[in-house]
Amino acid sequence: MSRHLSPHVSRPAERCVPPTAGLPLALSDLFGRVPGADSDLASGLARAFNLPWARIECSGTAALVIALTALQRLQPGRNEVIVPAYTCPLVAIAVAHCGLELRLCDLQPGRPDMDLDHLERLCGARTLAVLPTHLAGRVTDVAGAAALARRTGAFVIEDAAQALGARIGTESVGTQGDIGFFSLAVGKGLTLYEGGVLAARDPALRAACTRASEALARRHAGWELRRTLELVAYALCYRPALLGVVYGRPLRNALRAGDRVDAAGDLFDLRIPLHRPGRWRQSVGLRALGRLPAFIAGCTDRARRRRAQLESLPGIEVLGDSPVVPGAAGIWPVLLLRVSDAARRDRLLDRLWVAGCGIGLPFAHALPDYRRYASVVPWQDAGALPNARDFAARVLSLSNSPWLDDERFERLCAALVAD
Ligand SMILES: *Cc1c(COP(=O)(O)O)cnc(C)c1O
């Protein structure tokens, strides 16, 4: 430990670190020929990650809406969807969009995985789907959840929104459930500014997803123009010199206003845009995809080194993949830290989040504790979902962006033990 280092994790001229390790776009991704053999992004992704089938949608949330719609048509008598109680609020919004009922599953103590005893009690004749979730790239136990779901005739949708590139042995995550989905949003790795990917093995489910997608997600010139401009702006601005303006300043404003929901990037519209992502944006993703495997490998190396160093700090645990999944090899957009107690976690957040050094929250709250989403999340009394709420109160995320350099990481470690 470098005790002599300044406790100030950011020096005045230092630049802001993005909250996750997103793959930076090169300007050459915007133009020119697509290298390689694949003519479209879906087949490029299928080849790169050994997916049996892939379909591009306009967001991860849209992919989930399409998956739920497809399953609903196959099982119209079922209307409940079980999700982990600590996950992206967009999941709750998607379930409400489909007119389905959300059921919240508690987490395992100290882990982002669903508690299988609670899941077993929630599963029943009305369960349409269960959503095991690879939060922050950490591989979860899909097989355990699937065994419980299938016993009651429910489907499994694997939420791999934050886990494109994570594997179990040689298999990609997202392929063990009946349907899997990935996000191509900003900050989740490869990006089209907004985008999503559906995956499925079974030909009947692929056909059902395709039908639902064709019915729900039509071409829409207005949305495509907007996303095109946003993607170009992202390609220009996602670089160290500009992040302070496009990310750091709004972050500081949100924190100054005491708004952790805004600071965590959890302010979502309750209406979900559904449209077909255009060819040009998909070609940008396909050009960038060539660099993704090496980028993921670099993130994995850095995470391995930093995880060992963070684990040596008192009262800080770095969460790994589920220990019950042999061969799990997650990806590392962030390192998920669990702090010894909630008060200490809050003091660290108060001090470090504004510094723009990569410390923040994956999500601001467990789902029932957002006032903003009360209309799409069932009310829970204060004693319910104890593990999910404890997890939400003690977790921190640390960016694994290559722009957080070793020297600054050392200072951050010193600041983490200074509390
Ligand atoms: C981001 C996210 C989604 C939604 O994906 P978008 O592409 O942002 O719509 C769903 N689930 C989880 C766990 C996520 O992190």
Largest sheet: 7 strands, mixed
Which structural class matches the secondary elements?
Answer: alpha/beta
| CATH superfamily membership | Type I PLP-dependent aspartate aminotransferase-like (Major domain)
State the helix count. 14
How many domain regions? 1
Alpha-carbon distance between the termini?
14 Å
Instruction: Give the H and E element order.
Output: HEHEHEHEHEEEEEHHHHHHEEEHEHEH
Secondary structure: helix percent = 25-40%
Unreliable parts: 1-7
Mean pLDDT: 95
The set of bound ligands, ions and cofactors reads: pyridoxal-5'-phosphate
What general form does the structure show? globular
CATH top-level class? Alpha Beta
The strand line-up of the biggest sheet is: 1-9-8-5-4-2-3
Bin the strand percentage. 5-15%
Question: Might you state the CATH topology name?
Answer: Aspartate Aminotransferase, domain 2
Strands, count: 14
Radius of gyration: 20 Å
CATH architecture: 3-Layer(aba) Sandwich
Organism: Methyloversatilis universalis (strain ATCC BAA-1314 / DSM 25237 / JCM 13912 / CCUG 52030 / FAM5)
GO molecular function, one term: pyridoxal phosphate binding
InterPro entries: DegT/StrS_aminotransferase, PyrdxlP-dep_Trfase, PyrdxlP-dep_Trfase_major, PyrdxlP-dep_Trfase_small
Keywords: Aminotransferase, Pyridoxal phosphate, Transferase
Task: Describe the protein's topology.
Blueprint: H1 41-48, E1 54-57, H2 60-74, E2 80-84, H3 89-97, E3 101-105, H4 116-122, E4 127-130, H5 142-151, E5 155-159, E6 167-168, E7 171-172, E8 179-183, E9 196-200, H6 203-216, H7 221-237, H8 240-256, H9 260-263, H10 279-289, H11 292-311, E10 316-318, E11 328-329, E12 334-339, H12 342-352, E13 359-360, H13 386-394, E14 395-399, H14 406-417
Parallel strand pairs: 2-3, 2-4, 4-5, 5-8
Antiparallel strand pairs: 1-9, 6-7, 6-11, 8-9, 10-12, 12-14, 13-14
The chain binds pyridoxal-5'-phosphate.
